[in-house]
User: Which sequence fits this backbone?
């Protein structure tokens, strides 16, 4: 049985500004196996990493990312709102993270944020970048937009896809096989149940769950042999996994 892997949610977002290069670097320093991040598309079709469709919460900008060119976004600060000491952190590009991941030998879970905004062409663009950095065997694309994951498989059936969901699905293994995905990406409480885990595993579906920040939940999910745990605290999960 493979060991549970440790993925840092938006980088080491428990202690560093989410989805910034410092958060990604610190996740690597703290023993993550991979990084989960959120992909948006600028007006001039640059894939950038930010959880929200809008700039207001995490940066010094306002409005939708889709309405700005990458050059315009580069003037914004993505660290200062988290803490003054992270002033001058920029919104990273997907290419920056692909390069870092390649250098560090880690995996990536790229969540396409295309539910509110369809971002025409995002799937193809991301897949091309993944190949540019030769990361096709180390990347899982996921989305709450399951039509998008079908699109990914139609473009390239060898790219791994994961279906994100928040609530309990009825017979998730059947749904997942119907969509043609490789992994489920459920919120963790829907896979704290042994019978659901068994059914998914029996169908060779990987279980990659978010966002697990409580140690007891981490322990329970490790004991259920969940494939990937996505956490804001890769340092804590790393300690638990090192003890096994
Ligand atoms: O990909 C797992 C998790 O990040 C999904 O939710 O809102 O944190 O992007 P959210
Ligand atoms: Mg996400």
Assistant:
């Amino acid at each position: 049985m493979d060991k549970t892997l440790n993925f840092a949610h938006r980088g080491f977002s428990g202690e560093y500004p989410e989805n910034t290069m410092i958060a990604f670097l610190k996740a690597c320093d703290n023993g993550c196996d991979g990084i989960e991040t959120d992909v948006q598309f600028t007006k001039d079709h640059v894939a950038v990493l930010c959880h929200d469709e809008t700039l207001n919460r995490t940066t010094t900008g306002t409005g939708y990312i889709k309405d700005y060119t990458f050059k315009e976004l580069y003037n914004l600060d993505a660290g200062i709102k988290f803490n003054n000491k992270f002033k001058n952190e920029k919104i990273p590009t997907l290419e920056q993270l692909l390069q870092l991941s390649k250098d560090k030998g880690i995996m990536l879970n790229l969540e396409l944020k295309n539910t509110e905004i369809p971002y025409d062409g995002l799937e193809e663009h991301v897949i091309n970048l993944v190949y540019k950095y030769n990361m096709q065997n180390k990347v899982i694309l996921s989305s709450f937009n399951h039509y998008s994951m079908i699109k990914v498989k139609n473009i390239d059936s060898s790219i791994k896809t994961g279906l994100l969901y928040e609530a309990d699905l009825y017979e998730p293994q059947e749904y997942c096989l119907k969509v043609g995905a490789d992994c489920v990406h459920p919120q963790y409480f829907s896979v704290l149940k042994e019978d659901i885990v068994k059914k998914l595993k029996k169908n060779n579906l990987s279980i990659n769950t978010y966002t697990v920040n409580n140690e007891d939940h981490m322990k329970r999910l490790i004991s259920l042999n969940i494939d990937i745990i996505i956490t804001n605290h890769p340092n804590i999960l790393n300690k638990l996994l090192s003890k096994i």
